[in-house]
Structures are given as structure tokens and as C-alpha cells.
Amino acid sequence: MVEEVTDPRVARTRRDVVDATAALLLEHGWDGVTHAEVARTSGYSKATIYTHWPTRLDLIAAAIEQLCDVPHHPRATGDLRMDLRVALLDFATDLTDGHLDRLLAGVVERANTSEIVSSLRSRLYESGTSGMRSILDAHLERDDIEPVLALLTGAVFVRVTFEGATATKSFIDEIIDRALGTTTNRPAAR
Q1: Rounded CA gap, 10 and 16, in Å?
Q2: How confident is the model at residue 106 (pLDDT cuts 50, 70, 90)?
Q3: Count H helices, E strands: the chain?
Q4: Contact criterion met (CB below 8 Å) for 174 and 132
Q5: Using an 8 Å Cβ cutoff, are 160 and 167 in contact?
Q6: Which among 89, 111, 126, 140 is least surrounded, fewest beta carbons within 10 Å?
Q7: Rounded distance, CA 42 to CA 18, Å?
Q8: Nearest-angstrom CA–CA distance, 101 and 91
Q9: Distance CA 128, CA 148 (A)
């Protein structure tokens, strides 16, 4: 639990250190986050950082929480296929340009080693898929949402991270068609 900070200097220190940690995490992955590197990057002493974040996991958890709290989902228009296309292209861009792949790899690699990391994995998934989940919820029956979400995000994840290929609009349109092909659209509200 994060304590409420009233001193603006303490709040600024926390913000700066967590920002530096998030940047290191995205750029270099988990191995790039050390107290010494966060101190160098943020401009604060290692003693200050150890005081507020005694372990490397404390630093990483704070950075992941911050990354999850930043709203970053494209705005839905109500057009199911177009909204999914935009959301999946955004996800693919985050995997390649935003270094989300490094962040996810670190969490997946360590998820079974700690309840904290398992919780961070769940938090990342929920945060990262909340926009698409909302889109699907507005159009599909409840039982179809999770399987379609897994098919869509899984296909983009595999395409970009494992195949090293670009998730093009045509690829995304095809996976949307295939994933939605077995669903039941929710009747329009009257």
C-alpha cells in the first residue's frame, strides 16, 4: 500500500524515481533495473532509493503500477471491427516501438516465482486489455468476450514477438474476421 505523500519534495522524488525506473524497465527489461542504475538515471542517491524501495521488485512494481495507471487506449467509436483494428494496431505498436515485449517477458519469466509478480502479470493483462474488453462487451455475448480477446491479443503477440513480423492491417482484419466468425453479436439496444 502506498502511503499518502503530502510533502511536495517527497512526491517529486517518488515521481522522478518511478519515472526513471519505468523508462529503464521498458528500454532494458528487468535486468536493466538496479538501484544503482535508477539512482544514476533519476539523479537521486542510492540511499534515498533504498529507503523508499528496499528491493528491486519494489522499484519494478511501482513502475508497472504507474505504467498501468496511464490511460492509453484508443477511443471507441462504436464500430466493432474498426475499434478492434485500431486497438490491435496500437497493441502491436506498443510491443515493437514501446518495448512492451521486454516488460511482458520479464513478468512472464518471473510470474511463478512470487505472488507479487503474479499479481503484476494480472494487473498488466487487465490494464492492457481493458479497452478491447470494453469494445467486445458492447457488441458480444458475455461468454464470447474472453475467448475472442485471447484469440485477438494472442495472435498479435505471437506475430510481433515470436515471428518478428509486422501486424499489418490486413493481418489484423483477418484475425478479427476469424475470431468474430464464431461469436453471437448482442442484439442492438432498443
Answers
A1: 10
A2: confident
A3: 9, 0
A4: no
A5: yes
A6: 126
A7: 9
A8: 10
A9: 15
Question: In this structure, what C-alpha cell is assigned to residue 10?
Answer: 517527497
48-104: pLDDT as tens digits: 999 999 999 999 999 999 888 876 777 889 999 999 999 999 889 888 886 777 788
Rounded alpha-carbon distances, angstroms, from residue 180 to 3, 18, 167, 170: 44, 39, 18, 15
The domains found in the chain, sorted by start residue, are 8-67 (1.10.10.60), 73-180 (1.10.357)
Q: How far is CA 145 from the centre of its chain?
A: 19
Show the cell assigned to 183.
461469436
Grid cell 470494453 is found at 134
DSSP characters over 43-56: T--HHHHHHH--SH
Tell whether pTM > 0.70: yes
H or E element that contains 169? helix 169-180
* Backbone φ and ψ of 11, nearest 5°: -60, -40
Provide the phi-psi class of 171: left if phi over 0, else alpha when psi is between -120 and 50, else beta.
alpha
| pLDDT single digits (tens) 131-178 | 999 999 999 999 999 999 999 999 999 999 889 899 999 999 999 999
Residue entry with cell 466493432: 80
